[in-house]
Amino acid sequence: MSNTIGSVTPRVSLIASEHTWIEGNAIQQLEITAKLPDMVRVVGMPDLHPGRGYPVGAAFFSQHRFYPALIGNDIGCGMSLWQTDLLAMKQSLDKLEKNLGNIDGPLEEEELGDIPPALRDYSRALGTIGGGNHFAELLRIDEIYQPQAGLDKKRLMLLVH
Questions:
Q1: pLDDT digits (tens, 9 = 90+) for 33-56
Q2: What is the CA radius of gyration of the chain?
Q3: Does the N terminus or the C terminus of the chain have fewer Cβ atoms within 10 A?
Q4: Can you give the pTM of this predicted structure?
Q5: Is the dihedral of CA 88, 93, 94, 96 positive or negative?
Q6: Sign of the torsion angle spanned by Cα atoms 152, 47, 95, 123
Q7: How far apart are CA 136 and CA 153, in angstroms?
């Protein structure tokens, strides 16, 4: 879970662990965005990175104005959470890493299998989760606030953005 590193300025906060590397340009963009008219609060998330004028991976709260440019080109990108069959208490990180293999790189030639030739043009991306602020991570739930959601604390969750 992320910790609040703190406020950069009174209206700008950053939520990330102290070990999270965030580009300085992204912080500058947060500060500039906070100065827009009627902007109340700007919060950078752990996946914060520079965008085209405004940062990606941030939340913005303004009153009396809409800023369509703050949505950026990531609109509709989305996030999904799936409950896995993996038992949270029985998993060791070393074992998981060995079983999952390398998910940071493209598929090897022998892994392409029955992928149609037309898709092989994209083989450098097949098997990856993309770039930018996209990620996949396994999570263990500490507390469930809405039991009707059907989540099981005994299972690992897969979060994909």
A1: 999 999 999 998 888 888 888 888
A2: 19
A3: N
A4: 0.49
A5: positive
A6: positive
A7: 19
- Phi, psi for 142 (deg, rounded to 5): -90, -40
DSSP 3-state of 49: strand
Nearest by Cα to 85 from 160, 12, 158, 35: 158
Cβ(42)–Cβ(58) under 8 Å?
yes
Rounded to whole angstroms, how far apart are CA atoms 156 and 105? Answer: 23
Residue with tokens 């602020």: 133
Residue indicated by tokens 């303004």: 62
As given in the structure block, the two tokens for residue 81 are 């959470």
User: How, if at all, do strands 4-9 and 136-140 pair?
Assistant: unpaired
CA distances from 106 to 33, 125, 148, 152 (A): 36, 5, 38, 32
Q: Cα–Cα distance between 24 and 69 in angstroms, integer?
A: 21
